[in-house]
Amino acid sequence: VQVVESGGGSVQSGGSLRLSCEVSEIIFRMYSMAWYRQAPGQPREFVARITAWEGTTYADSVQDRFIITRNNSKNTMYMQMNSLKPEDTAVYYCNADWQAPWGPKTFWGQGTQVTVSS
What we know:
The protein is an all-beta fold. Helix content is 0%, strand content 58%. The protein has no helices and 11 strands. Strands 2, 4, 5, 6, 9, 10 and 11 form a 7-stranded mixed sheet that branches. A 4-stranded antiparallel sheet has the order 1-3-8-7, with no helix packed on it. A hairpin with a 6-residue loop joins strand 4 (32-38) and strand 5. The chain is globular and about 45 Å long.
């Protein structure tokens, strides 16, 4: 299984970025997909999730600024990040999770850096 994030970069405060996460060799439509992030010296934290039936959940800190979507035909999840703030600076990780009847399956990507300057 390969989990490949892309779309990170450096932007100024107020700017936008779109992250992508492509996952190969899984039954993508069965997986709940999520983004987490980790800033230097901080624990990894939840950012947003989109379930297999496309229900979405967001951390309070990104509500109304970030939008998570998925395209099952492309095995890809996206996150549109708007109105970025310096505190959004972190490595963003993609997570794929399925509570399969025969046991949980979860996969992580290597992360993509997002840097927001003031």
